[in-house]
Every structure is written in C-alpha cells, then in structure tokens.
Amino acid sequence: MYTIVTKEMKIQMKKLSVVFLTVVLIAAPSCTKSGNASSGTPSQATAPKVKPVIIQIGYENNPGEPIDLAIHEWKRLAEERSNGSIEIQIFPSSQLGSKNELIDQMLAGIGVITLADGAFYADRGVDDLGITLGPYLFGSWDEAWKLIASDWWQTQMKLLEVRGLKMLAANWIYGDRHTLTKRPIRTVEDFKGLKLRVPNNLIQIKGTEVMGATPTPLPLGEVYTALQTGVVDGVENPLPVLYGGKFHEVAKYLTLDAHIKLLTSWFCGTAFFNTLTPEQQSVLIETGLEAGLYNNKLQTQVAEETIAKFKAEGVEVIEVDMAQFQAQAKPFYNLPEFQSKWSPGLFETVSKAKATP
Q1: Given 3-state DSSP classes, what are the helix, strand and coil percentages for the chain, each rounded to the nearest 5?
Q2: In this structure, are residues 176 and 261 in contact, taking their beta carbons and an 8 Å threshold?
Q3: Regions in the chain scoring below 50 on pLDDT
Q4: Which residue, 155, 165, 328, 303, is CA-closest to 242?
Q5: What is the pLDDT of residue 48?
Q6: Residue 105: predicted pLDDT
C-alpha cells in the first residue's frame, strides 16, 4: 500500500524541519558549556570554584620579629602548596586575644592556630611536657630536635590530642634564655641574693631557685621600672626580647648562660584539624615545619646581631663555664613538686631520647 504525499503535507514537513533545526542550533551552545552530555562531567569552565578554608594564626610577637617573619613564610608556602584551598590570616601582637582565649576558640572548633611551650602544655594536663622548660635540659639544639623526633614525644602528642589540641610544628627556635643583670654574674655563686624576674610558672620559678637566685614573678611590661627601683636585680629572656625591652639601659651585664633552650610549637584544635582534607592536613604540617627552618635561620642571625648591639651600647657580655652551671641545675629534676606530677623516671627517659644517634 502506498501513501500519497500531497502538496499540503510537503509544506507541513518543511515547517517541522525548520523548527527542529532551530531547536538544535539553540541547544548546541548550551551543551558545549555544560560539558560532555554522555559522560555527565562538567567542563573546567563551569566547575564551581572551591571556597578556601580560612585559618587564623594569632601570637604575641610583634611585626618584624623572626617569629612574625616566619609566619608570613608559612602563609606563603601553605597557600601556594594547597592551590588556594587554604587561606591563612595573620594576627600578631595578641590581636586575636590571649593564649587562653585562643584555646577556648580552638576547643569550640574554630580554625585558629597559636604557639606555646612545655610549661603551657603542662598546665593543660600533659604534665610530662613541662620538663622541656627545665634548666640545661638541652646541651644543644640538636638534642632538642632528637627529642621531638622520639617515640616519647609522639606519645605526648597523642595525650595532647585527647585534650583537644593538635600539634602542627614543634621545630621552631624561640631562643636561648640568657640573664641580664645590674651586677655581673660570672660564676654560680654570683646568683646568691640576686632578685631575678621570671615568668609566673612553677617550672621557671623553681629553676631559678635551684640556681641560687630569688625568683620574682612579674609581667614583662613592669620589668624596666622594677630594675630602676630595685624591685629586681635582673631579668632573663632570649636576646631580642632583652634588647627590645631596653633593659640594658639600667642593667649593664649580660651573662650568656643559656639556661633554657626554648623551643616553641604551633597547634590548633583537634576538632578543626579533623575537618580538613588529608591533603590540607599534610600541607599545613609540612609547610609549618619548613617555615620552622626558616625561623631558625633568622633566630641565629638575629642573636649574633643583638650581641653586637649590646656591646656597642656599653653592655659587658660575659661568657661562663657552662659545665658549672649545668651541675648546679641537676637537683631541679628531683624536686618533689615535679616528682609527684611527672611519670617515674621521666628525666632518664628524656635524656635517653635526646641522646639517640
């Protein structure tokens, strides 16, 4: 049976062809923009841009100090290596608040990072980490780096995580703590009767007592006047802090006793860290360690320059018999105040870990 195609039918078919072609032409650009229709994969041109994770780093140090310069290096490295998935905002000079205020934010899951030392972690419930601020624990920075690479250190980090804090980088030098005084300290005996300003924590108070001096806890901002008025006879701190406080205007003797090799570390909240992707976690830790090496180079350079400045401004710089000072400090590690808190044999455990080849 044959179908007869009339003139009217031909006209209608022609109209339908035109309509179909028009639809195809209109739809074609849309298909191109949305990618391969058969695979359902969006093209790069219309893929939604990933919003970066914002991380705030707050600390007490002022702009221009080695710590501050190294934090800017950390920011650069992290943002570059994460391909923009991490954005770091920097807040020096305690702009984000005190350390304890930042910790409260961390425990609430907010993305903030700050720095601390062993005495602080001891106050947060990981008592054994307080030993890292003990006098003459480290004979060299190499010993400090061996300790933070040890199994003992990893165990302490796990305990810290249980308390809601995640360690990111601990290889940052804060500096050797030296002593600046109004009368010279050349031997251990010279500490007797000396009123020495110290931070208000048990470890440094007892460390000062064991050396023979009288610890006087004071805020650092009150030290200049306290030296002038005789409330204290001296102050101890890393060289840039001593110089920056202008304490040498009233205390002219700098003893390079290096009684504490103060390493500092950076941490965030465990809850926040766990919200990051594995790639972001790796980037944050790896670049933090790299920035630590950058910081350490700056710290060494600044220390040498600062000693030269002290000398140029009339300060007597005194080298001491370090072995004599180290021997004086040994009883610190057997004090009952610490033996009741620390794990049995902690000093021996740490000594072994920091001496590991």
Answers
A1: 50, 20, 30
A2: yes
A3: 1-47
A4: 303
A5: 53
A6: 95
Summarize pLDDT for 117-152 with one digit per residue, the tens: 998 899 889 999 999 999 999 999 999 999 999 999
Q: How many CB atoms lie within 10 A of CB 126?
A: 21
- The predicted pLDDT at position 49 comes to 66
CATH number for the region 53-354 comes to 3.40.190.170
Q: Is 99 helix (H, G, I), strand (E, B) or coil?
A: helix
**Cβ atoms < 10 Å from Cβ of 58:** 23
Classified as helix, coil or strand, 151 is: helix
Spatial distance between the Cα atoms of 16 and 323, rounded to a whole number of angstroms: 101
Q: What would you report as the CA-atom Rg of the chain, rounded to the nearest whole angstrom?
A: 31
pLDDT value of position 36: 40
Look over the chain and give the mean of its residue pLDDT values, rounded to a whole number. 88
Domain segments of the chain as ranges: 53-354
Taking the model in full, what pTM does it have? 0.81
Provide the CA 232 distance to its chain's centre, in angstroms.
31
Sign of the CA dihedral with 217 first, then 221, 223, and 229 last: negative
Longest Cα–Cα distance of the chain, Å, equals 126
297 residue type, one letter: K
Question: Which residues are paired to 178 by β-bridges?
Answer: 237
Q: Tokens standing for 27?
A: 């739809």
